[in-house]
Amino acid sequence: MAIFGTFFMLILISIVFMSIAPPVASNRLTDTEIKHLCSKTSNLENCYKVLKSDPRTRNVDARGLAEVSIDLASKKANKTHSLINSFVNKTHDSRLKNIYKLCSSNYNDAIRDLKVIKNYLKSGAFKNIPVQVKDASEEIKQCKNVFGGATSDGAHIRREIRRLNFLSA
C-alpha cells in the first residue's frame, strides 16, 4: 500500500485533459499515445504499467482513460484512507493519533474531490476538472507534509511515502 500513489493518478488525469484536444478525445488511444501521456510523469514505466493493468484501457479514448484514472485514484485513496484510519485506532500516542486524524481528513477531502471530478467528467464540464485535481493533490500533499515531521512512530508511513514518491510528476 503506497500512501501517495493517488497523487500520481491525479496528475495523470490532469495531463489527459490538458494534452488532448476535445475533437481527438473521442478517438481510441494507442499504446504510443498512452506512453506519451505517461512520459509527462516522473516514471513512464510505472505509469504505463498501472494504466495497462486495468483491462478497460485496451480500447479507450481520452475520456475513458480519464475515467479509468479517476477510478484507480479513488480505489487507492479509499484504501489509503482505511489504512490511515486503522492506524488511528491502533496507536495510543495522542500526538501521533492527531497526525493520523489530520491525514485521514485530508484523504476524506481528496476522495470527495475525486467524486466531483468524476461527475464533471460525466457531465462534460471538463474546464472544471483541473481545479478539482489541484484541490485533491493539495490535500494529499498536506498529508505528506504532516508526516514529514512525525517521529519514528510514523516510520511506517514515511516508508510508504518514499516507496511511491517517485511517481509524482
Automatic annotation (TrEMBL):
Q: Quick check: keyword Disulfide bond in the entry?
A: yes
The residues the entry assigns to the signal sequence are: 1-26
The record's InterPro entries line, in alphabetical order, gives:
Invertase/methylesterase_inhib, PCW_Enzyme_Inhibitor, Pectinesterase_inhib_dom, PMEI_plant
Alphabetic keyword roster: Disulfide bond, Signal
Q: Does the keyword Membrane apply?
A: no
What residue ranges carry the coiled-coil annotation? none
Q: SUPFAM superfamilies from the entry?
A: Plant invertase/pectin methylesterase inhibitor
Protein name per its UniProtKB record: Pectinesterase inhibitor domain-containing protein
Q: Which organism is it from?
A: Sesamum radiatum (Black benniseed)
